[in-house]
Amino acid sequence: MFSSRLFSSRLSWDLRPNRLSELLEAKRLSGTAILDLTESNPTRAGLAYPAEEIAQSLASPASLLYEPAPAGLPAAREAVAAYYAARGRTVEPDRILLTASTSEAYSYLFKLLAGPGDEVLVPRPSYPLFEFLAHLELVRIVRYPLAYHGQWEMDLDALASAVTERTRAVVIVNPNNPTGSFLKRDERERLAEVCAKNHLAVISDEVFSDYAFEQDAQRVETLVDLQRVPAFCLGGLSKAAGLPQMKLGWIALAGPRNWINTARERLELIADTYLSVGAPVQHALPRLLALGAEVREQIVSRTRLSLDLLRAAVNGTSMRVLDVEGGWYAVLEVPRTRSEEEWCAELLNQDSVLAQPGFFYDFESEAFLVVSLLTQPEVFREGVGRLVERAGRG
Fold first, then answer.
1. 16, 75, 171, 300: most buried by Cβ count inside 10 Å?
2. Are residues 296 and 284 in the same domain?
3. pLDDT tens, N- to C-terminus, the chain (394 residues)
4. Are residues 310 and 379 in the same domain?
């Protein structure tokens, strides 16, 4: 009998289901209809996709020719450059490298910037994927806090204090998932100072940057024009066009020009080892990004309406919606009469409502619930109604 010693230590995670996943599975097996307030898959959110046009875009005969291009096909990279140009940003195609996903982009960048045991700073709270991706690359994650004082702010003093001789990069998520907070101009300047002083790169995850609720002159939507320090800006079809199944993302390089050239060469070497982005989606990319505008409009409308509904529903209760500037999620502060896990378990058991506890996103304190504003309206309305009825009473 072979033992688990055959497996890499990279996979030494506890794979046992948690309490909430066990409860959810039991409810589903019983046939209970669940009001899922965590739905973040746009293809399951009841959006109207231009299906025929999307299918036609993937039917190019050019896809039958194998043309390995480590950075991505020129026409596809030009399409990403046009995406930025439509937002008032100039990003030359030679500063763009295609990947199969944002997750793969992180994998490339951790390989590029860090060796085994090196450190990358990531925000807290934030999406829980970083630890898994970094662990697979033998990179250590160190968290810096986002502080909430009526709005979310980077704790840049804590970030600076977290830098060690093993630190190689700082990750920002802009807007953050799930807090929905954007980087501000003064934060960008201080961040650049810290990175310049310590010779660090910035990895700026900007997949939700198209989804701001209001205008703000102090907001920084992208770092593609950053020149002082090296930066890698991430985007992709998953959010820009609501097409996660198409498996295409990108890295846009920014910073000192001579550094960009060297980084691009090394990234192409990594990408040439994998060549993972399929030809059909690359050839379809110009059309998919154009069609994505229609999908984005629906998502913007959906998330804004959901946020308005949520704010109105909690008004006058013991709950509050934390300030959110963009993205697809909202954070609810609920009474601390129960733990987050107990709130979520009670909502699932008693009300058949699924929400996520804040500790899934590494919130430092209790008690917060996270809900997806992308949820279909009728499910969101009923689910929020039940949630507020239970948690709003304490």
1. 171
2. no
3. 666 778 888 888 877 888 889 988 998 999 999 999 999 999 999 999 999 999 999 999 999 999 999 999 999 999 999 999 999 999 999 999 999 999 999 999 999 999 999 999 999 999 989 999 999 999 999 999 999 999 999 999 999 999 999 999 999 999 999 999 999 999 999 999 999 999 999 999 999 999 999 999 999 999 999 999 999 999 999 999 999 999 999 999 999 999 999 999 999 999 999 999 999 999 999 999 999 999 999 999 999 999 999 999 999 999 999 999 999 999 999 999 999 999 999 999 999 999 999 999 999 999 999 999 999 999 999 999 999 999 877 6
4. yes
The answer on 214 and 93 residing in a single domain is yes
Cis peptide before 178 (omega within 30 of 0): yes
Residues 272 and 340 in one domain: no
Last residue of a domain, one of 288, 322, 356: 288
| Amino acid at residue number 35 | L
The CATH number of residue 387's host domain is 3.90.1150.10
* Structural domain range at position 296: 11-48+292-391
Answer yes or no: is 5 within a domain.
no
Whether 264 and 237 have beta carbons less than 8 Å apart is answered as: no
Does 280 share its domain with 369?
Answer: no
Q: In whole angstroms, how large is the CA radius of gyration of the chain?
A: 21
Q: Give every CB contact of residue 253 below 8 A, 6+ residues apart in sequence.
A: 95, 96, 97, 230, 231, 232, 233, 260, 263, 264, 267
pTM value > 0.85? yes
